[in-house]
Structure formats: structure tokens, C-alpha cells
Predict the structure of Protein-L-isoaspartate O-methyltransferase.
Amino acid sequence: MSDATDPTPDAQEARMRFIYTLRSRGVTDMRVLQAMEKIDRSAFLTGLFRERAYEDTPLPIACGQTISQPSVVALMTEALDVGPRDKVLEVGTGSGYQAAILSQLARRVYTVERHRALAKQAQGVFDALGLVNITAIVGDGSHGLPDQAPFDRIIVTAAAEDPPGPLLAQLKIGGIMVVPVGQSDTVQNLIRVHRQETGFEYEELRAVRFVPLVEGLG
Ligand code: SAM
């Protein structure tokens, strides 16, 4: 298992090129760039895909799912504007990479995945990397995580037809949710939701393409 904090010189160089790519794609938040430099994406991949960890592309993981494109992970993290006291919910653990990036910025991260095998694999990587402030949970994340609600920040990494009602309800006043919204087989809109005292404010950020948010367990 690669160490999250102690890369070899070759890995260090690959990560520096990676950060350059992220900056060229519009990522400017230094805290996000530092987290992306520190967390080794190859730890969340298996087999030959590990060698492609620092390409700015989505890659296959188990259960027919994908690890997201790094620049999209970075831009979604930036849009979430996570602070060190925040409790964050991620829906769609997948490989666990996005949750690991969030763990560098937040106080606590809960990540929910409908495929048991993915949640188990991701928790194993968190444990191996010493990322003690993340918990991976098996479940249908479209219902949120009522036991741990409310959340300062919520990020959904699968496409919903609309921002799920239970997730809106579990967002703190003053909180932010980032969610891809649209039909699953087309390009979706990345939406940022701000919860105000008086209601919800919706902002369209950019086009993205995610696998669908699916009901029930995998
Ligand atoms: N964030 C992931 C990462 O860093 O690797 C990538 C997420 S992948 C694009 C989308 C994930 O959402 C898949 O693993 C899929 O199984 C999961 N998913 C889809 N619907 C879900 C639901 N209702 N609850 C929880 N997870 C769900």
C-alpha cells in the first residue's frame, strides 16, 4: 500500500505534474491542491489502473463503477468550500478517493455507498492510510444519514434527477450541497445549493457526467 504522505521521487514528480494539470483546469484553492498532492490516488485503484492514477481521467473500479476524474473531484471540493470544523456527508463512496480528499479539509466525513464491496474496500484504504476521520457506510445514500444529521456540507457523486429531499432536509442552515442534477444518460448540471434561513438557493456551476444515483442496495 502506498503511503499518503511519503511518495517516492518518481511519484513526487508525477504528483507535481498532476497539480499543474489541475491548476490548468481552473482549480485555484490551495487547500484543495495540497490535499490532492498529499493523497495518493493510486491507493484507490487496482491492477494496471494504478499506473494511470495521475491521468486526469475517470477510471474503472469494482462493481462496474468509476473513480471520478481528478479535476472534477477538485472542482467539486472547491465548490463545497469545506472548513476544518465541518461535518461532511458524501453520497457515492466508489473508490473512496473523493472522501479521502475531503478528510484533509473537514473535521469528520461520512461516506455512503450502495455496494457493500466498495464500502468495505474504501474503508480498508482509509485505515491503511491512517485517515481516521472518515467512516464508510453501506446504504442507499439518497436517504442521507439521519443518525448523523445535520451536515455542514453534503456532496453527491452520482447524478440525481433532482436534489434528493432527505439530503436537503439534512443540510444545516448556512450549509452547502453540491450535486449533479439531470438525466443519468446525458450530461448533467452540477448544482450548488445554499441553505438559508429563508429557504434554498440554487446555483448552476458547470456540465458534468456521472453515473446515476440508484435506489436500494447493490
Ligand atoms: N466518489 C467516488 C470516488 O471518489 O471514487 C466516485 C463515485 S462513482 C462516480 C458513483 C458511486 O455512487 C458508485 O460507487 C455508485 O455505486 C454509488 N451510488 C449510486 N447510487 C447510490 C446511492 N443511492 N447510495 C449510495 N451510493 C450510490
Observations:
- The chain has one domain: 9-208.
- The beta strands are 59-60, 66-67, 87-91, 108-113, 134-138, 151-156, 171-181, 188-196, 199-208.
